Amino acid sequence: xxxxxxxxxxxxxxxxxxxxxxxxxxxxxxxxxxxxxxxxxxxxxxxxxxxxxxxxxxxxxxxxxxxxxxxxxxxxxxxxxxxxxxxxxxxxxxxxxxxxxxxxxxxxxxxxxxxxxxxxxxxxxxxxxxxxxxxxxxxxxxxxxxxxxxxxxxxxxxxxxxxxxxxxxxxxxxxxxxxxxxxxxxxxxxxxxxxxxxxxxxxxxxxxxxxxxxxxxxxxxxxxxxxxxxxxxxxxxxxxxxxxxxxxxxxxxxxxxxxxxxxxxxxxxxx
Length: 271
Prior knowledge:
Elements: H1 2-7, H2 11-21, E1 41-46, E2 51-53, E3 58-59, E4 62-64, E5 79-81, E6 93-97, E7 105-115, E8 125-132, E9 142-150, E10 156-163, E11 169-170, E12 176-183, E13 190-200, H3 222-230, H4 250-261
Antiparallel strand pairs: 1-13, 2-3, 2-6, 4-5, 6-12, 7-10, 7-11, 7-13, 8-9, 8-12
Protein backbone atom coordinates (compact mmCIF):
# COMPACT_ATOMS: atom_id res chain seq x y z
CA UNK A 1 0.00 0.00 0.00
CA UNK A 2 2.84 2.39 0.85
CA UNK A 3 4.52 1.81 -2.50
CA UNK A 4 1.28 2.02 -4.47
CA UNK A 5 0.32 5.31 -2.84
CA UNK A 6 3.62 6.98 -3.72
CA UNK A 7 3.87 5.69 -7.28
CA UNK A 8 0.36 6.95 -8.04
CA UNK A 9 1.18 10.55 -7.11
CA UNK A 10 1.87 12.78 -10.10
CA UNK A 11 5.04 14.82 -9.74
CA UNK A 12 3.10 18.06 -10.31
CA UNK A 13 0.66 17.18 -7.55
CA UNK A 14 3.60 16.48 -5.25
CA UNK A 15 4.65 20.12 -5.43
CA UNK A 16 1.31 21.21 -4.04
CA UNK A 17 1.45 18.43 -1.43
CA UNK A 18 4.84 19.56 -0.13
CA UNK A 19 3.67 23.15 0.16
CA UNK A 20 0.35 22.28 1.77
CA UNK A 21 1.98 20.20 4.49
CA UNK A 22 4.74 22.74 5.08
CA UNK A 23 7.49 20.15 4.58
CA UNK A 24 9.69 22.75 2.90
CA UNK A 25 9.24 25.41 5.51
CA UNK A 26 9.50 23.86 8.95
CA UNK A 27 12.15 25.38 11.19
CA UNK A 28 12.57 22.85 13.97
CA UNK A 29 9.07 23.02 15.43
CA UNK A 30 7.35 19.68 15.82
CA UNK A 31 3.86 20.86 16.74
CA UNK A 32 1.09 19.99 14.34
CA UNK A 33 0.33 23.68 13.83
CA UNK A 34 3.90 24.23 12.60
CA UNK A 35 3.06 22.68 9.23
CA UNK A 36 1.40 24.34 6.27
CA UNK A 37 0.97 27.85 4.94
CA UNK A 38 -2.58 28.24 6.28
CA UNK A 39 -1.92 27.86 10.01
CA UNK A 40 -1.32 30.95 12.11
CA UNK A 41 1.92 30.83 14.12
CA UNK A 42 2.87 32.76 17.24
CA UNK A 43 6.17 33.94 18.71
CA UNK A 44 5.99 35.23 22.28
CA UNK A 45 8.38 37.66 23.97
CA UNK A 46 7.87 38.11 27.74
CA UNK A 47 8.85 41.43 29.30
CA UNK A 48 12.22 40.17 30.54
CA UNK A 49 13.24 39.42 26.92
CA UNK A 50 13.49 43.16 26.31
CA UNK A 51 16.36 45.55 27.06
CA UNK A 52 16.32 49.25 27.93
CA UNK A 53 17.55 51.70 25.33
CA UNK A 54 17.95 55.45 25.82
CA UNK A 55 18.23 56.23 22.11
CA UNK A 56 22.00 55.82 21.99
CA UNK A 57 23.00 53.11 24.44
CA UNK A 58 21.68 50.04 26.17
CA UNK A 59 21.08 50.74 29.86
CA UNK A 60 20.88 48.54 32.93
CA UNK A 61 17.93 50.34 34.44
CA UNK A 62 15.12 47.91 33.76
CA UNK A 63 12.64 47.50 36.58
CA UNK A 64 11.03 44.05 36.52
CA UNK A 65 8.25 43.29 38.95
CA UNK A 66 4.80 41.90 39.37
CA UNK A 67 2.44 44.86 39.50
CA UNK A 68 1.93 45.95 43.08
CA UNK A 69 4.11 43.12 44.36
CA UNK A 70 7.60 44.55 44.08
CA UNK A 71 10.59 42.73 42.66
CA UNK A 72 11.07 40.36 45.59
CA UNK A 73 8.24 37.99 44.81
CA UNK A 74 10.27 36.35 42.03
CA UNK A 75 7.63 36.65 39.31
CA UNK A 76 9.17 39.40 37.16
CA UNK A 77 6.21 39.42 34.80
CA UNK A 78 6.25 43.16 33.97
CA UNK A 79 8.97 45.62 33.00
CA UNK A 80 9.69 49.30 32.49
CA UNK A 81 12.82 51.41 31.92
CA UNK A 82 13.73 53.83 34.67
CA UNK A 83 15.85 56.14 32.50
CA UNK A 84 14.60 55.60 28.96
CA UNK A 85 11.09 57.03 29.19
CA UNK A 86 9.39 58.66 26.22
CA UNK A 87 9.32 62.13 27.76
CA UNK A 88 13.11 62.36 28.16
CA UNK A 89 14.28 59.96 25.44
CA UNK A 90 12.09 60.08 22.30
CA UNK A 91 14.04 57.22 20.73
CA UNK A 92 14.32 55.21 23.93
CA UNK A 93 12.26 52.55 25.61
CA UNK A 94 12.08 48.79 25.86
CA UNK A 95 13.39 47.21 22.66
CA UNK A 96 13.44 43.70 21.21
CA UNK A 97 14.35 42.22 17.83
CA UNK A 98 11.32 40.21 16.67
CA UNK A 99 11.98 36.56 15.82
CA UNK A 100 10.04 35.52 12.73
CA UNK A 101 11.35 33.21 9.95
CA UNK A 102 12.62 34.64 6.68
CA UNK A 103 9.90 34.87 4.04
CA UNK A 104 7.03 34.57 6.53
CA UNK A 105 4.16 37.04 6.58
CA UNK A 106 4.07 38.98 9.87
CA UNK A 107 0.40 39.86 10.31
CA UNK A 108 0.27 41.70 13.62
CA UNK A 109 1.35 41.93 17.23
CA UNK A 110 -0.58 41.78 20.49
CA UNK A 111 0.76 43.66 23.50
CA UNK A 112 -0.19 43.10 27.12
CA UNK A 113 0.59 45.71 29.75
CA UNK A 114 -0.56 48.02 32.50
CA UNK A 115 -1.30 51.70 31.87
CA UNK A 116 -2.52 54.19 34.46
CA UNK A 117 -3.70 56.51 31.69
CA UNK A 118 -2.44 59.59 33.57
CA UNK A 119 0.89 60.47 31.97
CA UNK A 120 1.09 63.46 29.58
CA UNK A 121 0.54 62.22 26.07
CA UNK A 122 -1.47 59.58 27.73
CA UNK A 123 -0.49 56.08 27.05
CA UNK A 124 2.02 53.35 26.37
CA UNK A 125 2.94 53.44 22.70
CA UNK A 126 4.93 51.19 20.39
CA UNK A 127 6.35 50.92 16.92
CA UNK A 128 8.10 48.34 14.71
CA UNK A 129 11.06 49.51 12.66
CA UNK A 130 12.52 47.67 9.68
CA UNK A 131 16.28 48.23 9.79
CA UNK A 132 18.25 47.12 6.74
CA UNK A 133 21.83 46.96 5.52
CA UNK A 134 22.88 46.09 1.97
CA UNK A 135 22.47 42.37 1.35
CA UNK A 136 26.19 41.79 0.74
CA UNK A 137 28.35 44.89 0.43
CA UNK A 138 28.99 47.68 2.94
CA UNK A 139 26.65 50.58 3.39
CA UNK A 140 24.69 52.70 5.80
CA UNK A 141 21.60 51.21 7.45
CA UNK A 142 18.13 52.41 6.49
CA UNK A 143 15.18 52.63 8.88
CA UNK A 144 11.50 52.44 8.07
CA UNK A 145 8.63 52.43 10.56
CA UNK A 146 6.30 49.68 9.36
CA UNK A 147 3.77 49.80 12.21
CA UNK A 148 2.91 52.12 15.09
CA UNK A 149 0.14 52.20 17.70
CA UNK A 150 -0.69 53.07 21.28
CA UNK A 151 -2.95 51.87 24.06
CA UNK A 152 -6.22 53.87 23.84
CA UNK A 153 -7.73 52.50 27.05
CA UNK A 154 -6.94 52.88 30.73
CA UNK A 155 -6.36 53.02 33.50
CA UNK A 156 -5.70 49.34 34.14
CA UNK A 157 -4.42 46.25 32.43
CA UNK A 158 -4.83 46.09 28.67
CA UNK A 159 -4.38 43.73 25.73
CA UNK A 160 -4.30 45.25 22.25
CA UNK A 161 -3.80 43.66 18.82
CA UNK A 162 -2.34 45.79 16.01
CA UNK A 163 -2.32 44.63 12.39
CA UNK A 164 0.45 45.53 9.98
CA UNK A 165 -0.64 47.65 6.98
CA UNK A 166 -1.24 46.08 3.58
CA UNK A 167 -2.27 42.69 5.03
CA UNK A 168 1.11 42.08 6.63
CA UNK A 169 4.87 42.52 6.38
CA UNK A 170 6.89 39.90 4.46
CA UNK A 171 10.02 39.20 6.50
CA UNK A 172 13.32 39.89 4.74
CA UNK A 173 16.13 38.54 6.94
CA UNK A 174 18.67 38.59 4.12
CA UNK A 175 19.19 42.30 4.67
CA UNK A 176 16.91 43.40 7.51
CA UNK A 177 15.76 42.90 11.07
CA UNK A 178 12.62 44.13 12.80
CA UNK A 179 12.90 46.08 16.03
CA UNK A 180 9.95 46.55 18.38
CA UNK A 181 10.19 49.63 20.59
CA UNK A 182 7.77 50.07 23.51
CA UNK A 183 7.72 53.45 25.22
CA UNK A 184 6.19 54.41 28.53
CA UNK A 185 6.32 57.44 30.80
CA UNK A 186 8.46 56.59 33.80
CA UNK A 187 7.31 57.48 37.33
CA UNK A 188 3.79 56.55 36.34
CA UNK A 189 2.29 53.08 36.56
CA UNK A 190 3.18 51.93 33.06
CA UNK A 191 4.43 48.38 32.51
CA UNK A 192 4.94 45.99 29.62
CA UNK A 193 3.92 42.39 30.31
CA UNK A 194 4.52 40.52 27.06
CA UNK A 195 4.29 40.67 23.27
CA UNK A 196 2.93 38.03 20.92
CA UNK A 197 3.80 38.19 17.23
CA UNK A 198 1.30 36.61 14.83
CA UNK A 199 2.66 35.29 11.53
CA UNK A 200 2.21 32.57 8.94
CA UNK A 201 4.40 30.86 6.39
CA UNK A 202 3.84 31.66 2.75
CA UNK A 203 5.00 30.42 -0.63
CA UNK A 204 7.46 32.71 -2.36
CA UNK A 205 6.17 34.53 -5.46
CA UNK A 206 7.06 32.58 -8.62
CA UNK A 207 9.52 34.00 -11.17
CA UNK A 208 8.19 36.01 -14.07
CA UNK A 209 9.70 33.53 -16.55
CA UNK A 210 9.01 29.80 -16.19
CA UNK A 211 11.93 27.46 -15.49
CA UNK A 212 10.47 24.55 -17.49
CA UNK A 213 8.84 24.44 -20.90
CA UNK A 214 6.12 22.04 -19.68
CA UNK A 215 5.20 24.14 -16.62
CA UNK A 216 4.28 27.56 -18.05
CA UNK A 217 3.04 30.48 -15.97
CA UNK A 218 -0.54 29.33 -16.60
CA UNK A 219 0.00 25.84 -15.14
CA UNK A 220 -2.20 25.11 -12.12
CA UNK A 221 0.84 24.10 -10.03
CA UNK A 222 3.24 26.72 -11.42
CA UNK A 223 3.81 28.51 -8.12
CA UNK A 224 4.33 25.32 -6.09
CA UNK A 225 6.66 23.69 -8.64
CA UNK A 226 8.78 26.82 -8.94
CA UNK A 227 9.03 26.90 -5.13
CA UNK A 228 10.35 23.31 -5.09
CA UNK A 229 12.85 24.10 -7.82
CA UNK A 230 13.95 27.35 -6.22
CA UNK A 231 14.61 25.65 -2.88
CA UNK A 232 16.66 22.87 -4.50
CA UNK A 233 14.25 20.04 -3.71
CA UNK A 234 13.90 19.04 -7.34
CA UNK A 235 15.58 19.84 -10.62
CA UNK A 236 12.98 18.38 -12.95
CA UNK A 237 13.22 15.36 -15.25
CA UNK A 238 15.64 17.20 -17.57
CA UNK A 239 17.24 20.60 -17.88
CA UNK A 240 14.22 21.94 -19.77
CA UNK A 241 11.24 19.90 -18.50
CA UNK A 242 9.68 19.04 -15.16
CA UNK A 243 7.33 16.23 -16.37
CA UNK A 244 4.53 17.26 -13.96
CA UNK A 245 2.23 14.38 -14.93
CA UNK A 246 4.77 11.59 -14.45
CA UNK A 247 4.24 9.21 -11.55
CA UNK A 248 6.65 9.26 -8.63
CA UNK A 249 8.88 6.40 -7.49
CA UNK A 250 9.86 5.65 -3.91
CA UNK A 251 13.42 6.63 -4.77
CA UNK A 252 12.34 10.04 -6.03
CA UNK A 253 10.18 10.54 -2.96
CA UNK A 254 13.17 9.74 -0.72
CA UNK A 255 15.24 12.36 -2.55
CA UNK A 256 12.51 15.00 -2.25
CA UNK A 257 11.95 14.35 1.46
CA UNK A 258 15.65 14.28 2.34
CA UNK A 259 16.29 17.57 0.56
CA UNK A 260 13.16 19.23 1.94
CA UNK A 261 13.84 18.23 5.54
CA UNK A 262 17.60 18.70 5.37
CA UNK A 263 18.15 15.24 6.81
CA UNK A 264 21.68 14.64 8.12
CA UNK A 265 21.61 11.31 9.92
CA UNK A 266 24.62 9.57 11.44
CA UNK A 267 24.43 6.07 12.90
CA UNK A 268 27.09 7.06 15.46
CA UNK A 269 24.90 9.71 17.06
CA UNK A 270 24.12 8.92 20.69
CA UNK A 271 23.06 10.67 23.86
